[in-house]
Every structure is written in structure tokens, then in C-alpha cells.
Amino acid sequence: MTKVNRRHQEHFEVIRAREEENLQAKTALCETVESVVYDDLKTHRDWEKKAAEIIELQQKWRTIGFAARKQNQKIYDRFHAACDEFFKRRNEFFKEIRKDFDENLRQKKALLEKAEALKESTDWKETTQAFIELQNQWKAVGPTQRRQSDAVWKRFNAACDYFFERKNTAFSGQRNEEKANLDAKNEIVRKIQNLDESLSADESITTLKALISEWNAIGYVPFRDKENAYNAFRTAVDKQYDRLNVAQADRRMQAFRSGLSEMAEQGKGRIHSERDRLMRTYERMKSEVQTYENNLGFLNISSKGGSGLLKEMERKLERLREEMALVVKKIEAIDENLE
Question: At 332, which helix (H) or strand (E)?
Fold first, then answer.
């Protein structure tokens, strides 16, 4: 072989070796694209990240030279097919995602309509719960396209903010009113504590009842102060009752009237329930009174121990009638409150 032929031979061997290297490099790129695990691509971010990797592989492909002529087209077709398969599946995923986006947008618009319909409400308790539920439902709805979701979110959030700002303003005024009520009740307690002891018993009781009625008529106080305010009031009243020897029935009646204001805070349904309970108590006592009266009529006082038993039954009957009278007064007090 001549020197020229050897150089030609060496040149062709170098080309074939380079083509073989190019084929191996391109084969590796094909295998990388073909090895994509599509089941692992579940989110928009997953697909976008993988797409960036595929595009980078395509750019790398362009930097690799040709393979041997009989293999070059074949390896190109293989790589092209693998890339086409990836982008076809990516497009199918985003097509399905767009359907989900449209449904999520529809749900969010429905929540927006509800929020805007509620934002003017002054039923603070019920509407607050409704807004919290709407916000929880919003969080549960899946994503939408950003250019659409931002506008809907801003309107939804504005409706929520509008309602809660109105509520805060209203409750700020209510808190001021409750603080004033607490000051007024504390002032009445001080008056009860310092009741003029030079007054006659009747005058003292009249003044005390007027102060109790005034205390009961005052509205709500801050919740955290409610129990302390009531305990201070009851302690002051009981101390005056002890000093004036007020009957226990009168004390209990006044305590019941004070408790009515607390029931009113829970709504008229609570007061109606208390009235129903008292009516059942009254009917039970009425039946017991009738039983005692029948037993007294049949009791043989001449029998041994009959006189003592008769007196005991008469005492029980008297106490029962006193309790019935107190129950009637409580029912009348409730009826006055309901008018």
C-alpha cells in the first residue's frame, strides 16, 4: 500500500471512529428521552421541568455530528419519535388541565357570587361562619390559569375583607357600649353596698328593689367581665337582704329576675324553654298538692302517731304551696319579659 493510500485509509478510519462515537452519543440521548417515566409527571411543574430537560437534549443533539450514512437517518428518526411522543403527551396533559382549570374557575366564580351577596349582611354570627366556610371551600378548589384566577381572587378577597371590616367597626362600637354598661352596673353595685342604713326597712327594700331593676335593665357587658359583675352584684344584694331580713322567697325571685337578662342574651328561645320547664314544674306541684290534700282527708288522726303525721303533712303542703306561688311569679316575670 502506497503512502498516499495509507493516509486515505487512516483518514477514513478516523471518520468512521468519529461517526461511531456520534452514533453512541445520539443513542444515549434517545435512551434518555425514551426512559421518561410519564406516570411520575403529575403536575404542571413536573411537565415543565421535564420539558426543559428534553429541550436541552435537543440542543445537545445539534452539537453532535453525523453518524454513518446508513445509520444516521435511522437514529434521527428514533430521537425525533421519542421527542414527539413526549410533547404529544405533554399537550394531552395540558389539554386535560385546561378542562380542570375551567371547572375550577367556574367553582370559584360561584363562591365569589355568594361572597358578594353576603358582604352587606349584619347577621354577624351566621355570616361570619358562612364566610369562613366559603374561604375553606375556596382553598379546596384546585388551581386556575393565573390571568383569570387573579381577577376572581381579588374580588373574592375584597368581599371577605369588606364584610370583616364592617363587622370590626360594628363590634368596636358594641365593645364601647358594653364597657359603658359594665361601668353603670358597677356603679349600681356601689350604691347597693352603700345603701343608707338610716332608712326604714320598707324604704330600704323599696330602694334596693329599684336598684336591682335598674341593674337588670342595663344591657350586655364584656363577656370576660360578665361572671365577676354578676357575682359582685349578688354578693352586695345578699348582704343587704341579710341586714333587712328579707324572706328567702323574695331573694330567690329577685335572683330569678336577674337571671332573666342572661337568658335574654341567648335569645327568646332560651326564655321560652325556661317557661315550658316552669309550667311542667307547676303542673307536677299541683298534682302533688292534690295528693297531699287527698291523704290529709283520709288520715285517721285518732290513730297512734296520727297527730304528728298530720302536722308534718300540713307543713309539707304549706311549703309546696309557697313553692308553687314562687313558680307562678317566675312565669309572670317571663311573660313580662316576652311582651
Answer: helix 306-338
